[in-house]
Design goal:
It is a single chain. With 201 residues, the protein is an alpha/beta fold. The protein folds into two domains: 1-38; 48-197, Glutaredoxin. The chain has six helices and seven strands. The strands form two sheets. A five-stranded mixed sheet has the order 5-4-3-6-7, covered by helices on one side. The chain has a two-stranded antiparallel ribbon with strand order 1-2. It starts with a helix and ends with a helix.
Length: 201
Amino acid sequence: MELSTINLTFKIKIMLKKLLLFVSVTLVSFIMFSFLFKPKTGTPTSSIYDIEIKSLTGEPLKLSDYKGKFVLFVNVASECGFTPQYKDLETLYSTYKDKLMVIGVPCNQFGGQEPGTAKDIQTFCQSNYGVSFVMTEKVDVKGENQHPLYKWLTNKELNNTTSSTVKWNFQKYLVNPEGQLVNYFFSNTEPLSDKIVKHLK
């Protein structure tokens, strides 16, 4: 074999080794990035089912009643541009109520768009959207008076999945039948979006 052919073969082998190394490093980096930044459902350090909250009409609401079902928590408001989502929330609940509970959590922290009394809210929801899913008392979902429910939903130290901040009305948090936070979805994610529904099928 001529020397030039030997040199060419040697160079090709070197190039192939470098290419293989580059592909390997890229693949490992991609896997590590996905592992680090994808929300992971873990065992919570505290149970969401132990949190106390009242219903819209003032009775104690036992979250433990929904063990074994998905629960979608949504901070709601009656005078928001996203308020029509009530319709699809009701459709979502009606379609999957054998495995899902939707819980609306009235909050007046975003644009003062939930100013009414409990009776006002109840009347509005039922007369305009036929809401039949659970509604809680009006609470703060952020700030120094943040309700324990939202401390759990937004704090990775408690839910062992991810930390977040509630940005606006109709942000959504999905908890699985084992009481683990699956993920959260910003206001512009429609209730019937595949991002949510895929977990229920």
